[in-house]
Fold:
Amino acid sequence: MKNQLLLITLIAIILMGCVPASAEDVDSLIATLKYDQYAQNQADAAFALGDTGDAKAIDPLIVALQIGRTTDIRANAASSLGNFKDDKALNSLFAALGTDKSPDVRVAAIWSLDRLADQRAVEPLIRAMNDPDALVRGVAAGTLSRLDGPRSVPYLTIMLQKDSSIENRYTAATALGETKDPNAVDPLIMALSDPTVDVRMGAAEALGVIGDPRALPALNKSLTDPDESVRKFASNAIKEINTPEESPLPTAAGIVALVVSALLVKVKRRTTRC
Structure:
């Protein structure tokens, strides 16, 4: 019991960032991950190791991701590996995304790939958009749009039009907006006529983000949509398209700061000459 309390205290201190983990702390967490009889302790250690920043944790975390006895152990290992820019860690996340039986682990792997932002994740993410689990597909779509931008448009369009999950179709619509790609405009205009309210709402929102005037006729038509939320998002989108972004005017404080900075530069130059 005493050792367990010490472990809990150590993990809490590391997670709160109160003190950096020492080499002894990392070794203790690795030993817990490998050998502790309680699965929850192993899962907690796997999570805490990600915050240590110590490369010694990578190999034990990879093993835990591959053969951890519970979903929590493997999911926490996947989450922690996202804190290490390491090829072995990256490849282990790819493998887990493709083969782990738990959707929770696959989702954790995707979130780590999102944080790592490595272009090599694009193909595994595209494959994950066909995952049997709806949540995995949706998270993969969002990550792909952030990682691959305009090149993700064809895959997001397929999800928008064909995914069985309404939530994922909404996710695909908003992700298309985030790409700000002109090629996303036509499928989003089509989605304004979708029978599902959430999809129409997401499409209207996305068209406002893209800001392409080609969407105005369809958005004007959506102002008579039976659903109030769709009408509101369409109205907002029209305003965004008709109001181009302008560079903000400098504030009074900003002007004063610029003047002071210029005066300091002059003073410094005069002092240097003297």
User: Anything to note?
Assistant: The chain has 16 helices and no strands. The mean pLDDT is 88.
